[in-house]
Amino acid sequence: MWQKWHQRYTQNLMCLKLSTQHYQALLEHATKDSKLECCGYLLGYSQQNQNILNSIYPMRNAHSFPQTHFAFVPQEQLQVFHHCKSQNLQIIGIYHSHPSSPPIPSKEDLRFAYFEELSFLIISLQYGINLASYRISHNHTREERIEILGNSLR
Fold this sequence. Notes:
Layout: H1 2-11, E1 15-18, H2 20-32, E2 39-47, E3 50-59, H3 74-87, E4 90-98, H4 107-111, E5 119-124, E6 130-137, E7 140-148, E8 151-152
Parallel strand pairs: 1-3, 1-7, 4-5
Antiparallel strand pairs: 2-3, 2-4, 5-6, 6-7, 7-8
């Protein structure tokens, strides 16, 4: 009985899956200029409650205060959409770094998180490197598990 419940429960957990190479690329982008927030798109496909990462699309941070905020360049966003279409990929998430705060969505992060099916990955550099991923809808935040080649971070 317990095994059936546990299997149903764990099947419904949200998860972001990525390879070791993707993990390293995300860390490299976040630490390249660690005083500024990095940002970009996570591309891949969704399967049930899992977002499976196929590629990372780093973006320039166009915000006027890049130390604590991020904004995408509209022309680059169009390039992402064309890339997805040509490669038969979906945007499965958005990532950005928090150079001096924990990997918890800020009020601004919550305000601009419009699509609950997207993974919202935050890389914190505050005390070493910490990652957390969320699904956000209407200011309701649910942390999702991160899996790297079968290793779960959350």
